[in-house]
Amino acid sequence: MSLSNVKHQSRAQDMLQRAYAKDRLPHAYIFHGPDGVGKETLARGISQLLLCDSPIESENENSDDKTAPPVHSGCGNCESCRLVLAETHPDIHSVYRQLARQHPKPEVRKRTARDIGVDVIRHFLVDKVHLTPSRGKAKIFLVREADRITRQAQNALLKTLEEPPGTTYIILLTASIDRLLPTTQSRCQLVEFNALPTPFVREKLGTLYQQLTPQDLDWYAKNASGSIGGAIEAIQRDRLPIAERVIDTLSNLSERKLAALVKEWLNTSESATGTLRKEDPDITDAEAKRIGLKIIFRIAAAYYADALRIKTGQSDDLINTAHQAKLHTLANALNHDEIIDRINRIARAENQLDRNIHAQLCVETLLGDLTCGVPA
Amino acid sequence: MKLRFNREELAEALGAVCGVASSRTPKEILKCVHVEVRSDVVLLSATDNEIGLRCAVTQVEVDEPGETLVTADTLSKIVRECPDEILMFEVKDNVLNIRGVGSHFKINTHTSTDFPTVPDLEGDPDFMIPNEALAGLIDWTVFACAKESTRYAINGVLWEVTPKQLTMAATDGRRLSVGKMKFKEGGAKGDSQAIVPGKALQLFARLPGDANSSVAVQIASNRIILKVGRSTLSSNLIEGHFPKYQDVVPQDCDRVVELKTSEFQGKLRQAALLTNEESKGVRLSFAKGELTIASRAPEQGEATISLPIEYAGETTEIGFNPVFLMDVLRVADTDKITFAFKEANRPGLIKKSEDFLHVVMPVNLTSA
Questions:
Q1: A203-231 residue pLDDT tens
Q2: CB contact under 8 A, B222 and A94
Q3: Which residues of chain B have a CB within 8 Å of the CB of A131?
Q4: Is some CB atom of chain A closer than 8 A to the CB atom of B193?
Q5: Domain stop point among B217, B245, B273
Q6: Partner of A168 at 20 to 30 A CA spacing, among A201, B32, B256, B275?
Q7: What is the rounded distance in angstroms from the CA atom of residue A356 to the CA atom of residue A286?
Q8: How confident is the model at residue B106 (pLDDT cuts 50, 70, 90)?
Q9: Which ipTM value was assigned to this complex?
Q10: Contact residues on chain B for A127, CB-CB shorter than 8 A
Q11: Which CATH number does A237-371 carry?
Q12: pLDDT value at position A64?
C-alpha cells in the first residue's frame, strides 16, 4: 500500500508530495473522483507516511513531469507502519455510515444507516479530535462516502474542519463532490482523482483474476470506465452474464414483445443487484432497484456506443467484441444521429432514476424509445 | 506458550482489563486482551485506543513463554465460570487451550502483532504519590467535570504539577473543584500540566490497589501513565486550554459559617424533595444562630427546613442548586466543612480543609 504504488494519479500524488516536502499539509482535504481509482489507497498511504517513524524517500517513477517531486512514503517496517497496514493503528480513525451500529446511544444504533448522521460525526470525529494522538505524531480521520454526510452533520463538522486542534488531518473521500455543502468544500483543499487508463485496469485485473479468460478480462476492464474498484466489483458479482442478457434483449427489440422485454429487464436488474440487499441492510429496496437498473443502462449505453464506433470506423476499440455480428446489424440499421439519440435517451433514463421516477415506468419508456426510435 | 495460572488472581486481573476492552467498537481487535507470558510474570493488556490498561499476574508457573490475543469477554467468562484453583493455558496452532479439572476450552486467537502496544512506564516516573492521597484528589474533583461539553477542555481534570505540589481542578462552568497535595518526599521533577479525561480517572479509582501503596505518575505530551501495584493505566490527554480557574475562586467572602457535613447534607436532601426542573434552587437563609433551607415546587408544595448554626454575620439569603451542594458534601469525608459567601449574586465557597475547595455558582431565586 506504499504511496509509490498508487499509479496514474500523478496530479494528486504530486500535490500531496509537494505539500508534505514543504511541511505545509493542510489539515482538511477532499479527495474526489470516480469510485475505485485509488482515493482511499492514497489517503491510507499518506496516513502511513504521516505516522511512520522513519519515512523513506524514493524517485518518482510514475510522473511524466520531469520536475515532479520525489515520493516520500512510509517505511513499511516500523510498528506504526505495521499497525497502519493491519488497519489497527489507534490514530487512524475511519468514519463511515455503518459506524452508527457502534454508537453508544441505542436509538442511533436502531436507525438505518443510509447517511452519515450528526450523531456519528459528533461521536466518531468531532469528539475524538480533541484527544491527543495515542502514538504521538498525528491523528488522521478518513471519512468514506463523504457525500453521505447529512446537511446537519456537515454543519456540525464545519468548526472542526476549519481549525482542528493539534496535528489533526481530516480527509473526506467522495465520488460526488457537488453533494457537499459549499461551506464544507471551502474549508478543505480539493484533490481531484482521474479515471485510470483502461490498459492499466486490464493489467491489474490480469494479475488479480488469473482464472478468467483474456476476453472476459478485456470486457470487464473496458466496461469499468477506468475504475479498478468498479471492475473488481463487476467480476465478483459476475456481471458478464447480465450483459449477455441485456444485449440479447437489445438485439431482439420489437414492438410486439415490448411487455416481455420490460419484464426481462426488471428481472435482470434484480439479478444484477444480487446479494447486495443482504450484504448491506441499510440499502432500501428502491435504492437496490436503482443500482441494478443503472448497471443495465450502462451496459446498454456501451452497446450503442459500440455501434457508433463501427459507424465511425473505430472497430478496434469495441467493448463487446463477442457481439460483432449483432453490432454490425445494428450499425447498418440505424444512422449516426439515431444511435446518438438512443445513447442520450439511456443517459436521460439514468438521470431520471436518481430523481425517484418509478422504475418500471422508466424502463418501459426507454425500451419503447429504443425500439421505435425518435418520431421525426 | 504454556503455563498454569492461579485462577483467582487471573480472574481479578481480567475483571479490571475487561473494563477497558471495548464491547462496542468498529475494530474487532479492540475487543481482545493481549496476553504476554514472560519467564515469571504474565502481562494482560487491553485498550480502547484512548485508555490502555496493563495488569501483571504473578502467581503463575510458566513452562514456555509467548504471547497471544483473545477476545476479552470470552476469556473472562471462562475464567469466572471455572471452579478450579489452577487453570492451564496452552497455545497450539493459533488455538488457546484452557484446561481445568474435567473441562477443556479451545478459543481461537487473533494475530497478536496487529494489536497496538499498550504503553508502560518508561524510565523514572515524574513523581510518586500515596495511593490514598491521589484517590482523595480524584474523588474531590472528578465529579465536577463537564460531561459532553462542547468546550472540550473542561471534559477532563486539570493536573498541574510543580516540584512541590500537585493541584487538580475540574469544572463544568457552574461549579469548580480544586484539590492540592504537597509532596512529602521526593517531589516532582519539574513543572507539567495535563488535562486527563474524567473516564480514565474514574477507571483508575476502581482499580484494585492497596491504599498504603504509592502511585507512580508519568506525564508526557500526549499521555499520562499511572502505575499502582501490578496495574498500569495509560490515557490520552485532552487537547485545549483549561480556563484560568484561579480567577474564579472568590477572595472576598466575609460571611463564614462552619457546618456539620452529615447534618447539612440530610437537611438539604429533605429540602430538595420539593424542587423540580423549573425551580432547581433551594433558598439558604443565614440568620443569627439559624439556617433555614426553603424550597418550592410550583403546583406541588413547599418545604422549610431549619437547623441551628453558629453564625454571627449579617442575615443573608442565597440560592443554590441542591444537587451541586449534595455532590460536594458526598465527597467531603470530614465532619465539618466551611461555607463562605458574600451576597446573593456571588458564588459560594466550600472548604474541606486548606487544600480542598469548591466554588459553586448561586441560582437566581427572585422569580421563584
A1: 888 888 888 888 888 889 888 888 998 89
A2: no
A3: 50, 197, 236-239
A4: no
A5: B245
A6: B32
A7: 8
A8: very high
A9: 0.82
A10: 148, 152
A11: 1.20.272
A12: 62
